[in-house]
Amino acid sequence: MAARLRHTGIVPGQTSLWWLPWVVGLSAFAVWMALSAWRRGEHARAARRFGWAIAPWAAWLLGLFTLGWRVGDAFGDWGQRFVFNPAAWLGFIAGGVAVVLLWAGYRFGGDAEGDETESPRKRRRAVESGSGSGSDEFADIEAILKKRGIT
Question: Can you give the pTM of this predicted structure?
Answer without folding.
Answer: 0.46
